[in-house]
Amino acid sequence: NAGVTQTPKFQVLKTGQSMTLQCAQDMNHNSMYWYRQDPGMGLRLIYYSASEGTTDKGEVPNGYNVSRLNKREFSLRLESAAPSQTSVYFCASRKGTGSNTEAFFGQGTRLTVV
Amino acid sequence: GENVEQHPSTLSVQEGDSAVIKCTYSDSASNYFPWYKQELGKGPQLIIDIRSNVGEKKDQRIAVTLNKTAKHFSLHITETQPEDSAVYFCAASRNQGGKLIFGQGTELSVKP
Asked: Fewer Cβ atoms within 10 Å of its own Cβ: the N or the C terminal residue of chain A?
């Protein structure tokens, strides 16, 4: 049981380049999330998808786009990377129905923009 | 918008002592309050959670308390051990599929 899988694990981009971070979960969860983690800032929500077919902005959406490709996959795209987007990115998923339940996280993608 | 404030940002205790981390939230409609532990190089993992219909929950050495009136909740770790050293995050959520907002994190160091 893989849980939440993120690819790639590490990436270095030049300013202005674009890339897509991939996330897939195999737990049949409805809700998926993208966070960025910076020192002293905690985990900040970029975008989330409450259910397949819907996406919503989180706390820090500027400079990012997302696609909920199907129930399993939720991708994060940087169209024109900036040094301020250097961070560790985490994808998470949770059941999204019934009582509130825990979120499961991937291992993270460490992105450096130079 | 929703906001979760967490204190302290760093906490150092001696092995065997207790550790307390506190969080406040702004959205009065929040009803789910999980705590996560993040070890170096890994994603956060749930250690305990509490729902708004209870005031306290305990699991072995870990306990969480919730004061809905004051909109704050706390994590208590007793008899700390070196393997408790990690970054701890609190979070709050209004409903099952919606936003899950995290605090800034607390780096706990337990010295042998």
From this structure: N
